[in-house]
């Protein structure tokens, strides 16, 4: 019985210690990033992506240089990876990527094909 209690305590402590470690990459994403997609049409080739949390859910807002804002749906963060979908001119666009050495690298799956995306954190 004593071993069982000890085992449960160790399992509980491991869970408590692991959760903050697993949450750290999410906080690395939080903030505003300036992105570039070289092959995208001019109006979508650069802008800002803001990763945040509202009401316990991860959120993404993309702001193009002309001031237009769109929201991401199906937002997922796992470790240093992220993914979301959005709609641009009635087309579903899927964005996937990860944090690598303080920068975002990713892919944008659009009607124009698979495009490379990079971003640097601004705030």
Question: What is the tally of helical segments?
Answer: 1
What is the string of SSEs from the N terminus onward? HEEEEEEEEE
Q: Outline the biggest β-sheet.
A: 9 strands, antiparallel
Identify low-pLDDT runs. 3-25
Q: What proportion of the residues form beta strands (DSSP E)?
A: over 45%
Strand order of the largest sheet: 4-3-2-1-9-8-7-6-5
Structural class: alpha+beta
Write down the overall mean pLDDT. 82
How widely separated are the two ends? Answer: 52 Å
Number of strands: 9
Task: Characterise the protein shown here.
By secondary structure, the chain is an alpha+beta fold. The chain is built from one helix and nine strands; from the N terminus they run αβββββββββ. The protein has one helix at residues 2-29, and strands at 31-36, 46-54, 57-64, 69-71, 73-78, 81-88, 91-100, 103-110, 113-121. The protein has a nine-stranded antiparallel β-sheet with strand order 4-3-2-1-9-8-7-6-5, covered by helices on one side. A hairpin with a 4-residue loop joins strand 3 and strand 4. The longest helix is centred in the first third of the chain and has 28 residues, at 2-29. It starts with a helix and ends with a strand.
